[in-house]
Amino acid sequence: MRWLTYFILAYLAMGLQIGLSGHVTIGGAWPNLVLLAVIFIAINAPHDAALLGCFTLGALQDLATQQPLGIFALSYGLVAMFTISTQQIIYRGHPLTHFSLALVGSLLTDVVILLHGWLRGPRLSPMLLFYSAIYTALLAPIVLGLLQLSRSAFAFESPRRKMRI
Amino acid sequence: MSYLRFNHVFVALMALSFLSAFILKPSATDRLRAQVQNIFAPIAWPVNGVAARIDARFGHHEVRDDGSPKVARTSADLIIENQQLRAELTSLKSQLDRLAQREHEREGLGKPRNFCTAFNVIAGDSGPRDSLLLSATSLDGLQTGMAVISTGGIVGKISRAGVGGASVLLITDPQSKFTAKFIRFGKKSDGTPDPQPISSEPSLVQGAGNGMLVSRIMKKSDSELHLQAGDWAVLSDSDWREELDGYPTGYIFSVTPSKDPGFVDVKMKPFQNLKTLREVMVMNKG
Fold it and tell me: Nearest 10 degrees: CA dihedral of B150, B156, B160, B166?
């Protein structure tokens, strides 16, 4: 994977995430654009690069939130592990794949956030997090569809080709 | 790096993030974050500016008229009320000046704005919490715990301040707690607004997320005034600066019976959408 392109994507995703925060909410639900970048990296990048890339995206998101440091890094690490395990069985260009992976990824992140709220506080509204997961999943086909067009800029190594070598 | 070795590194990173998120106190890692939290400002600031303009142009913005919440007033009514308010303001100003002359020891007790510095908001929270990132640093005199206000009332407190930026924990965040009293605006015989206290004792108010505040208070007897939609909650908390006593925090939009018998749940909203503010005032003087 081309790491410079990855960092440009990470920076843009984070800038958009916090810049749009509060302006694109629907009934309090907010879209998680960084998670969509995580899904994009996880379905395309090779195993090690995907895990490291997703974890780093989470760590970057942790820098600009009131949540404790590590919440998003841990969540996106788990999301990456799940998504990578499905790499061989999914059609990575299909909108339904993007929707379902974003939904599962969002719900996985919500579980970590709720678990943290339950153990350490403050408790956040589960319904609001659920609506945010739906919002993110609905955006996924559009955002990931556009990102898939720029795949060549990331120089992802095809796992199948690697296996032949 | 071999496959096995990378897995070890990744497991160590995950364990570290778990430790930081679930075991360590947030204050332990906040120092680090305060130094780097504004690194996304070059993208976030212009994006936030464009989004705010689009929001202002096309978004739905509720206009509140506390003087007449049910029926829209005519321009003539508003002009008359403005004249009355101007007269009252002049009177109050002269009274305040007289008091200021008499009470030298309390010279500092003036308008909260006199103790503030205005700072631009870069962006909001990257997660589900209610917070703002400011284009200000500890070098501007900002410290954790400083009060933040705007024209619409109390905004929150500085939660992190470092050389890399500062963030504000909004009063609507579930982590925010303060005490407030409730007031209702009646009208004097001359028609000017007259704030009347409803509660003598302050009540605990806490953020509920999603731009809301909640308070659970004891049900009042029939002889007492009951809280109702439109009443204001004003700050009355010794943990906040004295100058902010009585400063508005929000208005009540619903009062419902609580699950706990004998209590009512009071839901409030700030006068502005705090997450979309473009500028705030930090009380960093005095």
Answer: -20
